[in-house]
Design a protein that fits this description.
Layout: H1 7-20, H2 28-47, H3 52-64, H4 68-87, H5 100-113, H6 128-151, H7 155-174, H8 182-203, H9 211-248, H10 254-279, H11 288-313, H12 321-324, H13 328-350, H14 360-390, H15 394-421, H16 427-435, H17 438-450, H18 452-455
Amino acid sequence: MTEDLDPRIEDQISTWRAYVSRPEAIDGRDVDELEDHLRGQIDRLEASGLDGDEAFLVAVKRLGGLDDLSREFAREHSERLWKQLMFQDEPRAPRTGGGLLLAVGLAAGAALAVKVPALFGMQFGEDASFYARFFALLVLPFLAAYFLVRRKAAVPTIAVVAVPFLAAAVVMAVYPFAPDGATLTLAATHVAVALWIVTGIAYVDGRVRSSRARMDFIRFTGEWVVYLALIALGGGVLVALTMGVFEAIGLDAGWFVEEVMVPCGLAGAIIVAAWLVEAKQSVIENIAPVLTKLFTPLFTLLLLAFIVAGFVQGNLIDGTTTEMFGQRDLLILFDIVLVVVVGLLLYALSARDPLAPPSWFDRMQLLMVVAALVVDIMVLVAMIGRIAEWGASPNKLASLGLNVILFANLAGAAWLQLRFAMQRAPFERLERWQTGFIPVYLAWAAIVVVVFPPLFSYV
């Protein structure tokens, strides 16, 4: 047995032990062994940054995968313990450095930060160029601070996170972007991606070399996207009601919605969504894995239908693929599809039991990845044709670079997924391959932000 834990956790373990000891068929030595596994899980989870209540319930749910009684106990007690995690008093969670109050404070800080430029005449709805440059820099530092405080990060980790933020701020402030130039749009989108990955360093508390830690950040990202989307849907309803109510009494609330509710709400929602993921971490069933199981077959059918349509139309056979992809919007659309496919693959891997044998879903993923590879080749051929015919541009080269990275990522994933499905390679190799590409995406985003603008004269 491990050493005694917090008295509250010891009480919960006693309740769990009494529950699993009820059936006469279970020997006391078996319960002792299960309890030893439970305590070991709690120790490891607390060491990773969870507080006692969180660690207990996550451990019980993981143990539930080995023992039906533990799974039933987790099901019956999840609601009570989830409420404890969501609304517990701050002094009872000293390990995490605060939960709800910290998140609310930083969310308010992010909301105020996006309104500070208004003091200098910058309006969210009118000065799109300014906010395109700096929105990520105004909000993501608060999210990074949230994780750094919760993890009680060391000074070196804080420095590793802070330096890229400072460098990005200097680049976005100094570069003389054309107001409506392509390089501004590229820099704005890629700086958000780069800083999100840097925020991941804070999330994993500097353990960037750990494949498991990187996968934890991928798992967090998937859950965060789901929560942010749900908050956005609720925010849309709130905006509609606000407009309707004030219009009914003869007042125009449009300026308030556009200049206050939308920017402040978005900034705050980014922090609150992160807190929701942290607060319910594995306490109730995750939403994103369910969506992954739903959309993987649908995206596989979409890719296969596109490939079949290309062959039927003859575009792949007579060499007119470039004409087929002649419009830039189509190229962008299929870039988005390929990115979503990689996202589905990543999150499916993050939600999978690494010890489980290959299943039908793994084979479905392999089919999706192979179909995505075929589509990626078609897109690459189209892009090279466009560059050869019309010349290079920042958008074309940025898209080409992304597709080359996606091709390498998907090709390696397809090979390792095939070997795993044939039980010739462990799941861990596939996981390491996927998480190993996070620094590659970070490097490419940094190149687009720093190199592309001066290379194309900031237009």
